[in-house]
Amino acid sequence: MSYKVWLLAGFLIIILIGVGAAYIMMRSPSSTTTSPASSVVSPSTSPSSPANNNFYFLVFTQKGIAQVINPFSTSAQFLGFLHVVNISINVPQQVYYWDEVPAEQMFSGKYILVPVNNGTVYVIDSSTMKVVQDFTVGDKAGFIGIAISPNGQYAAIADGPSGVVEVINLSSLQVVWKEQFLSPTGRTYYPCDVRWAPDGQYLIVPLRFNNSVDTLNAMSGKVMTVLTASPGSQPYMVSPNMQGTMLAVEYAGNNSVGFYSLPSLQYMGMVAMPSGVTPQRGTFTPDGKYYLEAPANKNEVVVISTSTYSVVNTITLPSISPAGLAEIGITPGGSYAYVVIHGSVTSGGMIVLISLSSMSVAYEVPLTTAPSFALPISVSTGSYLVDNVMLPPITGLHC
């Protein structure tokens, strides 16, 4: 009998404990933790940070027209234009694609240097948009590019066909130094790109037909470090990250992008491009986590992780013929990457802004002209040019 009593009492105690626990749980605040859905590409900027939309673009077209563009307007993106350098559509010469300002900076200099792929560089007064001088760097058609120093006081020029690299003082418009990179037989080593180190102390130059990447003292032009690439790899474009710790090199010979430490140029990783993609020009995101590759033959941006050295995403851009991107850079404030789709002088091209917080297309600016490069400028500078220098926009402007 006592056994049954004790058994019944035990059941009652268990029931009372269960009821009490349930009551306590109901009275306690609920706390549910859910893991966010994983994404291949995490935002490169904080989603809570407001985007910086306080800038315009000064766009130079392939045949020498300058345009002021407001990429954020829903009604009037094209604000004004001027024929700055008149290049006939019947000749192969054109304003070339690379005119680099430091990442996240607005152009604010007195002079704009405009490269033409016949070896000529025109110096434009940025307040009047008139040609005030020109430099003859080479005399053959081919790659030519310009990079403005981090302090805005100098411009480096690389002309592939002549093998010349030189630095210009932007106050005096005098050549600081000039070096020519030729093989023992006199053939150009083809320096078709030049970039400044973020601290402004040295230049980074790929020598395509020497299969090397050289760093040069910025004030003397003397070679400091040489990265010897594999035979036939043909390094032809370079981009340092904003921290000055990593360099990306586009290789024409094997359709890949290599990554190296700065300033020592030690190997870190190599990324083969997806099938059919030709790497050409790229830029690092402000935090350095990704490298955005702008192919020569596709309207897309290939996203490369700089921690795994692998392609993690592809951002599809509007379809414009012929396919291929002219330039890519980071906008002031670091909210966007801007991409120039060169298009053609008959059908036009486009400026595209990619949000770095979502890694997707945010704004599109279709142009009836064929853009070569775009310089971010302040709204006040753009407004001054539109009000005092430029002609009013017209429908169907070409070239």
TrEMBL record:
List the InterPro entries hit by this protein, alphabetically.
Host-pathogen_enzymatic-act (IPR051200), Quino_amine_DH_bsu (IPR011044), WD40/YVTN_repeat-like_dom_sf (IPR015943)
* Sorted UniProt keywords: Membrane, Transmembrane, Transmembrane helix
Residue spans crossing the bilayer = 6-26
- Kindly indicate whether the keyword Transmembrane helix belongs to this entry: yes
The identity of this protein, by name, is YncE family protein
- Native organism is Stygiolobus caldivivus
Its lineage reads:
Archaea, Thermoproteota, Thermoprotei, Sulfolobales, Sulfolobaceae
